[in-house]
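Here is a protein:
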Amino acid sequence: MMTIFSDNSETAWSIYHKIIKDVTGGDESPVVVLPTAIATRAEWDSTSAEYNAFLQQDFANAMPEWRSLYTRSPGRNIGDEYEAFLDRLSKKNIEETERPNQERLKELDEVRRDARINLRKLDKEIIEEWRVYVKETPEGEQLPRNRWEQELGYSADRAGYQQELQIAEGAYFLEVTSAGGRLAEIGRAIAAKGATEAKIALPSSKEPFILNKTNTWESYYTTQILGDINQFKSERVEQTFTVNESQETSTTYTSRWSGGASFQWFSFFGAGGSVDNVSKQESWEKDTLEVQITFGNLAKIPIRRGQWFKGGLVREFLTDIDKEFWGSRGRLNLIPTELLLAHSISLDIKTSEEARDYAYEHHRRSGNAGFRVGPFRFGGSGGSTSTSETTTVEKTTTGLQVKDTSGRAAVLAVICERPADLLPGGVPPAPFFMTRNRLTTEAAAFALEAGEEEKYIEFWHQMMKEASQELALDAVEL
């Protein structure tokens, strides 16, 4: 018998998307609600306020992938993408100005960017070398950082690059200020992002050699996830939602992502391990009729960035640069503004005795391998909702009950602003080179993140096959 959880569970995911969307208040343009593909723990509840601040900015400033479920885009962050926006904006407006100092503006714009790149490369090299030195040198033999930098010549190099950048940015700011109008406003935004107070030094690890050594900390753009997470975890206002065939599906789960996204057609259930587990998983999907989800508490939490980020400027100058910048393959295409948190997650799964016994035994015998129900991952490696030690699995007369007993909060959704929705004509279409291989690549990445190694291998082989086909087609076209 086919159920909403069969055939890769697209209907079940769509129902869950509607539940999350309704809880957050909807997704009227330009807002998009991205339920997390894996409801990972909100880790910023440690005993170190500084480390918590690092984790908050790290999560809040991660760029999401362009898709209907939230996953982080590797290597991308809001600070870099916003900077790319300002750079393009400056260049475009300088090219279009009719002021007599246009050539001077072009020169200064290029010089300031080059100076910034040089300083950042040096800073990255210094912090990496310093961390190695601190880790490998006995504490009693370590030089103070300023002396260490002086002896290796880093201090002089940094001072030179800093002076170069200050001169370049100062000259640039004077020229754009004298130009006035839009250029002056762009100049103020660039100055705000480059200001000393735009960043704060934070530890990127709980390892003692970093956490307890402030001179190993790197600087990050000031960003907060507001609210007291410990108070949130102490409050209990239960809400229960049901995923079954009688529930409405979301009208925007796929429709708002036609511009090049890969849709989440992955199963609602997953268990890492052997090929036999994959077969059992398919039976689990076919035999399950309903999943009831209870949250001990839910709350929508705002993200607040410092004065370095000007959201109003993004909206004001949206059409000044190519629309592809905001599209599926663009840069600053999704801007997280809020999170939906939950704690004390409990699932009641209505399924067959065979599926119930399989899931129960899988957890009992292979707790470390983990399993997944929708976005909730229990045990396993990498990001998860709860560890195997803080997960209880019990048989019921109708199936199975799974509970997270960790007391930790988890992120259920990331609410974003999508600037492309404000463009005349809406979201630009995907580039012509958005091929099947691109979609399959994203599918493979999602499967790996979800802990479904067998699916990842399957997608990998498919990617290789599609790549060969596309190379052959390219050869024919040439």
Observations:
- The chain has three domains: 1-72+225-434, 97-217, 435-478.
- Residues 259-265, 432-440, 466-478 have pLDDT under 50 and may be disordered.
- The longest helix spans residues 102-136.
